[in-house]
TrEMBL record, chain A:
SUPFAM superfamilies: P-loop containing nucleoside triphosphate hydrolases. It comes from the Bacteria. Residues 25-252 form the ABC transporter domain. The keyword Transport applies. InterPro entries: AAA+_ATPase, ABC_transporter-like_ATP-bd, ABC_transporter-like_CS, ABC_transporter_ATP-bind, P-loop_NTPase. This is ABC transporter ATP-binding protein. Pfam families: ABC_tran (PF00005). One of its GO terms (molecular function) is ATP hydrolysis activity. It comes from Streptomyces cupreus. Coiled coil: none annotated.
UniProtKB/TrEMBL annotation, chain B:
It is a multi-pass membrane protein. GO terms for cellular component: plasma membrane. It comes from Streptomyces cupreus. The chain crosses the membrane at residues 45-63, 104-124, 145-170, 259-282. One of its GO terms (biological process) is transmembrane transport. The lineage of its organism: Bacteria, Bacillati, Actinomycetota, Actinomycetes, Kitasatosporales. This is ABC transporter permease. InterPro entries: MetI-like, MetI-like_sf.
């Protein structure tokens, strides 16, 4: 399988970088709680996580593990209750949502151009750059299309192009393919791997799907639920994909079972 | 990476091919064919025309039966004659134009003020808690109630007319904008923040376009209120120094007991109100909704 080859080729380069002094994201003792009517609810508990430059890290967890909260914190949409989050790069992280979050009042091309504009790209360069990014996700014909005219998979690719337009130091992805059908998701996995390899991206990808996490990530980080804590971590290069999938599945099932016993 | 480079291209091409197939299969088909003109005539033009003809017939019958004396209830033909007299005297166009100019100017000012106020209230929570209910209350206050006060403050001047129009239209526009802003999906605001849209850029690129459907509804209502308020103001604030608008014409016709002219003027006021809604706001609203995939091809 070629994607295994691609995957196996890349990690050596980046896992080393991850341990170096220059991470793209570093979370130290990060906790997040919300004060609700029923008392304090801890969503994330003492998370320590480092993502190296050029690395692809998947955070895996069942519902209630605070995956989205984690990404919101890194994206700066929310603040941790305690702990620190370092995103040393100059550009703010880009974030891709499960629901494409494209603006329906703009065409696909204009959505990408808005991201370019907010990044400070001069007006005359924007159309060309937007077309280049759409071509990167193989949607060069979608430039003038409205969001509602695109299929779910195409919308997510436009959303990816828009996120790439930000040229953030990190690309955060919040279950971006969860709502897609299996074949479309499969194709997008291949595309994302290709784009990641070609463009030297740093990706922090959150999902509840074990296969997806194992397939995409160089590292898979398992979060426990309520509160979210880092339970286990695997390096994808160490184990063949199928074996790692069953290993991670077992660990995730064990995490979920714990909640039934209480 | 060497192995990856030799194997990848074929796989990548295959992926691209599957993807192209998916895109072709999933893309929304083109909208339905254009409705034929005959069908439009039959389904959308005929019913209102038939209704209008029925009303005219009933009116004519009432006139023939002398339900009221002729000088109180003129015939449709009398009203038509009053209209054509106005046309030949050249006053029809100038009267309508005077009122429309006032309406347009008052409405434009209301849009500017109402929008600024709406954005301010949307941004400052305590201000909204304080003024919001007052604005909603003002919306249900008939603006004709302001006319006496405005006359005392500003005399029989244009200022009186514009003050009444503003008091009528601004609350609608502000409330429409606030309703539109309240209905903006939080996801768009978060997406905007991630993209780096803050401050004025946030308002311009995310908040206003996202709130546009509600805002347009507010504008539409704002126009209706502008026009009504204007007529109320013209009707009461009637003096030779003020140009002759439709409201003043109506008042003059009443003083001369010219019922045909009264009815003709009412018809003109009605037509202007409907025309602006039909020719300006309806297409605008349809375009906005359709471009966002929120409306069918026929509303």
């Amino acid at each position: 399988m070629s994607e295994t080859v691609l995957r196996a080729g890349a990690p050596a380069r980046t896992v080393l970088v991850a341990e170096a002094e220059d991470p793209a994201v570093r979370l130290t003792h990060v906790s997040k709680w919300f004060d609700t009517a029923g008392g304090r609810q801890t969503v994330l508990d003492d998370i320590g996580l480092t993502v190296g430059r050029g690395e692809f890290v998947c955070v895996l967890g069942a519902s209630g593990c605070g995956k989205s909260t984690l990404l919101n914190l890194v994206a700066g949409l929310d603040r941790p209750s305690t702990g620190t989050i370092d995103v040393p790069g100059e550009r703010r992280p880009a974030l891709m949502f499960q629901d494409h979050a494209l603006f329906p009042w703009l065409t696909a091309g204009r959505n990408v151009e808005l991201a370019l504009r907010l990044r400070g790209v001069p007006r005359r360069d924007r159309p060309e750059e937007a077309r280049r990014l759409l071509e990167l996700v193989r949607l060069k014909d979608a430039y003038g299309k409205r969001v509602h005219e695109l299929s779910g998979g195409m919308r997510q690719r436009v959303a990816l192009a828009r996120a790439l337009a930000q040229e953030g130091d990190v690309l955060l992805m919040d279950e971006p393919f969860a709502a897609l059908d299996a074949i479309t998701r499969d194709v997008l996995h291949e595309e994302l791997t290709r784009i990641w390899t070609e463009n030297n991206l740093t990706v922090l990808f959150v999902t509840h799907n074990v296969r997806e996490a194992v397939r995409l990530g160089q590292r898979v980080v398992l979060l426990s639920s309520r509160p979210g804590r880092i339970a286990r971590e695997w390096a994808a290069a160490d184990t063949p994909e199928a074996a790692l999938t069953s290993l991670v599945t077992d660990a995730l099932r064990e995490e979920i079972r714990r909640h039934g016993r209480r | 990476m060497a192995a990856g480079e030799t194997v990848a291209p074929r796989k990548v091409n295959e992926t691209a091919a599957v993807e192209a197939g998916l895109d072709a299969l999933d893309s929304a088909p083109a909208g339905p064919a254009r409705t034929p003109v005959r069908q439009i005539l039959r389904e959308r033009v005929l019913p209102p025309v038939a209704a209008a003809v029925l009303v005219l017939l009933a009116w004519q019958v009432a006139y023939e039966a002398e339900v009221k004396p002729h000088y109180l209830l003129p015939s449709p033909a009398d009203v038509w004659r009053a209209l054509s007299d106005q046309w030949y005297e050249g006053t029809l166009f100038s009267t309508v134009w005077t009122s429309m100019q006032r309406g347009a100017l008052g409405f434009a000012a209301s849009v500017v003020i109402g929008t600024a106020l709406g954005l301010l209230l949307g941004a400052v929570r305590w201000l909204r808690t304080g003024i919001g209910p007052v604005l909603s209350g003002l919306q249900s206050l008939p603006s004709v109630a302001w006319v006496p006060a405005a006359v005392v403050w500003f005399g029989l001047t244009d200022a009186t007319i514009y003050a009444v129009v503003l008091l009528g239209a601004v609350p609608s526009i502000t409330n429409g904008l606030l309703a539109g802003v309240d209905q903006v999906p939080p996801l768009y605001l978060r997406a905007g923040r991630v993209l780096g849209a803050t401050g004025p850029a946030r308002v311009r690129h995310v908040l206003l376009p996202a709130a546009l459907p509600g805002y347009l509804a507010g504008l539409k209502q704002g126009w209706a209120f502008s026009w009504r308020s204007l007529m109320a103001a013209e009707l009461i604030a009637s003096s030779p120094e003020l140009g002759l608008g439709l409201g003043q014409l109506l008042e003059n016709a009443r003083t001369y007991q010219d019922m045909a002219l009264v009815l003709a003027t009412i018809g003109e006021i009605l037509v202007v109100g409907i025309a602006v809604d039909l020719l300006l706001f309806a297409p605008l609203e349809r375009r906005v909704l359709r471009s966002r995939g929120l409306a069918g091809t026929r509303s």
